[in-house]
């Protein structure tokens, strides 16, 4: 990878995420109720900021779905709160949508230790970003989604630069408005969230973190809806790894098959613990192997196989 030119020093005081919020000028004098109310009012801005970018998020989801469908990966990258939120979303995709852990990854500056404690200086280490992405063999089949609330985090920017060098698709999520030329140069798709200054200046774990979580939720969920991982609002590819998830899988199969839940559990066990396979077995009257073949032939779409059933009935 060619060595990038040294970036000019960053004027952190000019960043919107570092600005002081006039609404909290007397925060330390407010009663608890007023502090909570102010914080919740500010959090509502995070929702508005994300909603204003729904088209860009949908475009990003289509990009990720196009890469994942033939076997590619979604790789979240970030430092601090941004990195933790990416890792969290990656981890939750496994039980919710039944995808292997290797298909959605989270890379955080400082490594796994940074998930539970601050690793000082990790976000300023661009070489670590390149090393970590090289370790997971990023390539043209992948999408790298870098997250940086401030927009200037060296770790996240270096990850995008290396990903583009490796011809991976790239998405950048930030809570700072970038310049036009910078936006075009940094990633294939940039999602800029105008969340504004925090109640505590610079504490981007607050509404910037909320906005980031909303983007991750919308991005991954929409991606897997496009990939046939749901039927209506039901997670038919849920991986039942505990009692609660077994009960959920049984309810889903019961609702979509008219079997009672005890019969649904038996069917799911015959299907190897896969609710979607169980439903295809029931409706198409086939064994688990044939049901799996039908699912693959229909690109994961349960509706394409069993038709329209109202899950409310």
Task: Outline the structure in words.
The chain has 2 domains: 12-226, Glucose-6-phosphate isomerase like protein, domain 1 (Rossmann fold, 3-Layer(aba) Sandwich); 243-306, Helicase, Ruva Protein, domain 3 (Orthogonal Bundle), CATH 1.10.8. It is globular, with a radius of gyration of 22 Å. The chain is 48% helix and 8% strand. 43% of the residues are buried. The protein starts with 31 loop residues before the first helix and ends in a 7-residue tail after the last helix. The protein is an alpha/beta fold. Helix 3 links the parallel strand 1 (74-78) and strand 2. The protein has a 5-stranded parallel beta sheet with strand order 2-1-3-4-5, sandwiched between helices.
TL;DR of this structure?
The protein is α/β, with parallel strands linked by helices.
